[in-house]
Amino acid sequence: MQIKTIRSLLCATEETREYLWNLFVSYSLLINQLLERLPRESEFANWRKLGRIPKKAIVAVYGKVLEEDESLKGLPTRFYTSAVLSTGYTFASIFAIQNKLRARIEGKQRWLSVAEHDLELAETTDFSPETLREVAAQVVEQAEAERQREFDARKNRSGQPLPLMSVLFQLWDKTKDPLRCRAIAHLLRNDCQVSLEEEDPEKLALRLSKKRVQIERLQEQLDSQLPIGRDPLGDRTEKFLKEAIAVEADPEEFEAWERSLSEHMANLSTQLKTLPYPLLFGSTDDLYWSWEPEQQSETTRPASAHTQTSADPSTQRKPKRCRTRQRKKRLTRRISVSFKGKGLSHLHLRLYCDRRQLPIFRQLVEDSEANKAREKKDKFSLALSPLRSASLLWVENPHASGDQSLPWQTHRLCLHATIDPRLLTAEGTEAVREEKITLMNKFLKGLEDADEVQVEEQLSEAEQAELLAAEKNRTIATKRNQTTLTRLQSNSPPPRPSRVAYQGNPDLVVKVAFSREQIVGVAVSDGFQPVLDYRDAESLLVDLHVELLEQRSLKLRNQPERLRKAKLNAQETKASKPKRTRYKPKISSRQLQLQPYRLLKRWRRLKRKNLTERQAEQAHGLYRQSQAESNLAQYINRLLARNIVDLCQKWSAGSIILPEFGDLRESIESEIQAKAKRKYPDDDVERQKQYAKEFRMTFHRWNYKHLAECIRSRAAKVGIICVAGRQPRLGTLREKTIAVTAIPPKPK
């Protein structure tokens, strides 16, 4: 399911903004207290293994916080609910990252131990390479058979076979024969394949050093501190600054201060976020949408000079109309949003958004008004509302004037709404309805199949009360879901626009591969021919709409002569404000075709300039920060994504395979540091850093993650499925693109 987040500004009076800012500051301080106290609880280790903190535990801790700090009481209930949600999401994400890091460390340590043990066996044994390859081929056959046998045994539970590398590690643990151990190690070092090339000892030593550096870096990330929260009042920053500059006259205290100076400077360099935490709305019915009359300012425009001097209407001269400027349509009403809950329901904030998001908000208002006008039995389920969740947050106002110093004057209120794009069309709504009905029937069937609670006399009163409470909750859940199912089956939301769904050939796939030199490669493939069409970055960025480009070029070549003369006259007179003309230079159709690709060359020139001239400009105080390089790269990513999706539509491909690199950045950085350590001794740290810096500059700094997100977003608008894939490490870009394979989805 593709989820999209749209952003809009909220307009309110200064009193409302001041009221909300004070609430947000207290709310952020409450979250800071929760983030500080939860790791000190005795059950924190069990929560870490569980992967989340139960809601009851967070509620119990924030109850203690409210008892100790009276200033945090009196907040609206929505802020307390949001604090529990935000804290739970924060720790759940941290636990997931730590579990992932721990699994990666264990896997790399296991691979490193196998490789090191194989080097020890190589010193005590003298097996020939041919013998190792023969035994390795037999081990591969045995591993495939073992993999298929385990897949057949647990097919009903997961439906996916074990990775071949996991099976090889299992065989390694069971094997005692040195020849078979060396054959398995040979397979593990060569991507589970028999390699016919002789292994280079230097490359193997570099690879082992890279693994050790990776383990060290991952261990540092795993041992990193837990979140410390935000600093909306600036108290922590001021405290860190005082600790860093506080020097006592006593020599012993000065030595202690000098020893802890590095820690103080690290705290001082930590950039704490000063904006309050966003307020989370996790349900569809937490927001109320309505229309509000637009307040028009009644200002009279002064009469023009010709209307004042001339009384005869026939002699009056009409002002020239600017044809390039469109008349602004005056709005009579504006969308307003309010929030559910005591302390917030009286606020009505006007919404300002872009014209691309306006139809979505209009649909939310229409759905809300239609559901409100219906009787209770005719209301449709809010599961068919496009809005899934929302968040209210503060952002900096870049256009704030200098005389404004209060935080609610220098910041804006924003609303981030999470939308399910499928529910914006009639066909997508019907698909979601069928999906929800299936899930509801399955859930209700599970409740019916559950054993009825029987209160036995042997149980204590507390256990009997717990069983009765569980039965009551099950009854309430059954009634609530039965009502939702009835509304899904019988009631429909207001009519929505129709859009024909994309129908692609499931046998045709578009494979995408990323490269450090050529950015991206795309290949169209089916089950019979590996390559039906291949494109690289250059061919993707060349515009193929030849007829349209020729018409545009012809229009540019046939500019009126008077406009050319006007431009020449303006250049000759060198006027301070030359008259604007519509003249454009002559451009051929071929030049128009190559314009997008030349943007890539322009980005490379900007990158080279920033790398070579930025340091000198910073030394002389002439450097000005610019986003030209990153903005141009983002625009090129959007062009590439659009052309890749157009290629899919041209061939009617059913899906796109995008490679997932995972820890690619970490792997590159570990390799750079490993090369630096091998080139210079461990005691020469400065040379290692300089070598790593120079080597890092030669690497391609393209944002492949953003490119993949652009492709997914563009494909979701059309209805094309994006599948995760695996890209090989070796080969040319064309060979890598052809060899990209889809990763089987994980079982739910």
**Low-pLDDT windows of residues:** 297-316
- Integer average pLDDT: 80
Helix content: 40-55%
- Beta-strand portion reads 5-15%
How many H/I helical runs?
25
The N- to C-terminal Cα distance equals 15 Å
Largest sheet geometry: 7 strands, antiparallel
Q: Measured on Cα atoms, how large is the radius of gyration? A: 33 Å
Q: Main sheet: which strands, in order across?
A: 2-6-7-1-5-4-3
The backbone outline, from C-alpha atoms, is globular
Look at the helices and sheets and give the structural class. Answer: alpha+beta
- What is the β-strand count? 13
Q: How is the topology of this model organized?
A:
Blueprint: E1 4-11, H1 14-37, H2 44-50, H3 55-68, H4 77-124, H5 129-153, H6 164-174, H7 178-189, H8 201-222, H9 235-245, H10 251-259, H11 261-269, E2 279-281, E3 287-293, H12 305-309, E4 333-339, E5 349-352, H13 358-373, E6 387-396, H14 407-410, E7 411-419, H15 426-449, H16 461-490, E8 505-515, E9 519-525, E10 533-536, H17 537-541, H18 546-557, H19 561-573, H20 589-619, H21 628-651, E11 653-659, H22 664-679, H23 685-697, H24 704-718, E12 721-726, H25 733-738, E13 741-742
Parallel strand pairs: 8-11, 11-12
Antiparallel strand pairs: 1-5, 1-7, 2-6, 3-4, 4-5, 6-7, 8-9, 9-10, 12-13
